[in-house]
Design a protein that fits this description.
The complex is a heterodimer. By secondary structure, chain A is mostly beta strands. Chain A is 0% helix and 55% strand. Chain A is built from no helices and ten strands. Chain A has strands spanning 4-7, 10-13, 19-29, 34-39, 46-50, 54-55, 63-76, 86-91, 98-99, 103-107. The radius of gyration of chain A is 13 Å and the shape is globular. The mean pLDDT of chain A is 95. Chain B is an all-beta fold. Chain B has no helices and eleven strands. Chain B has strands at residues 3-7, 11-12, 18-25, 33-39, 45-51, 58-60, 68-73, 78-83, 92-100, 105-109, 113-117. In chain B, strand 5 (45-51) and strand 6 form a beta hairpin. Chain B starts with a strand and ends with a strand. Classes of the chains: A mainly beta, B mainly beta. Chain A binds chain B through residues 1, 32-33, 35, 37, 39, 44-47, 50-51, 54, 56, 88, 90-93, 95-102, and chain B through 35, 37, 44-47, 50, 59, 61-62, 95, 100, 102-107, 109-112.
Chain lengths: 108, 119
């Protein structure tokens, strides 16, 4: 089973700042099978990025994904008030799908 | 617009059974794999199970294998999760989600249904 580790656990930033979230896999993951989701309290997760770097429909271009192999990054170029949430990475490189534990982005 | 609506969550005793349903609309249901993902209170997301569009192949997390069964009725555009031998650790919000194989991602999610396993 591929284990995903996300860091940091919590990121405290101010609106307008840049957020850099890391997702590390215990073994290599094809870029085609790495996705990122945003979840706000009381809501279902929302797809942000798939294929490591492709934005989902309707996702603002301040969100970008990058990386390959075992190291992937989600970057939010300038935080908007609505971006404060929990972010999860997810891989599906094997028949078992796994999520990372999440990074909470909160207001400093 | 794709909509997924889960139902069936409730309070159930340990060792009991429950069937969740997910009604889908706005898509050609039989063309897409579907999944269940759960989230325990205050915890992260955990993939539970996936079924192919035809229903011919199913996949399970080790934590539910042998206890849960995923199925679908394409004539009713409905996904199911039969949960048996329920444990306290199965307490969670259960989401149904549409799965895309390549690139792999869950692109649409329901609002979730809460299952509580407690005596």
């Amino acid at each position: 089973e591929i284990v995903l580790t996300q860091s940091p656990g919590t990121l405290s930033l101010s609106p307008g700042e840049r957020a850099t979230l890391s997702c590390r896999a215990s073994q290599s993951v094809s870029s085609s099978y790495l996705a990122w989701y945003q979840q706000k309290p009381g809501q279902a997760p929302r797809l942000l990025i798939f294929g490591a770097s492709r934005r989902a429909t309707g996702i603002p271009d301040r969100f970008s994904g990058s990386g390959s192999g075992t190291d992937f990054t989600l970057t939010i170029s300038r935080l908007e008030p609505e971006d404060f949430a929990v972010y999860y990475c997810q891989q599906s490189g094997s028949s078992l799908f796994t999520f990372g534990p999440g990074t909470k982005v909160d207001i400093k | 617009e794709v909509q997924l609506l889960e139902s069936g969550g409730t309070l159930v005793q340990p060792g009991g059974s429950l069937r969740l349903s997910c009604a889908a609309s706005g898509l050609t249901f039989s063309s897409y794999a579907m999944s269940w993902v759960r989230q325990a209170p205050g915890k992260g997301l955990e993939w539970v199970s996936t079924i192919t569009g035809s229903g011919g192949s199913t996949y399970y997390a080790d934590s539910v294998k042998g206890r849960f069964t995923i199925s679908r009725d394409n004539s009713k555009n409905t996904l199911y999760l039969q949960m048996n031998s329920l444990r306290a650790e199965d307490t969670a919000v259960y989401y149904c989600a549409k799965w895309n194989w390549n690139p792999g991602h869950f692109d649409y999610w329901g609002q979730g249904t809460l299952v509580t396993v407690s005596s």
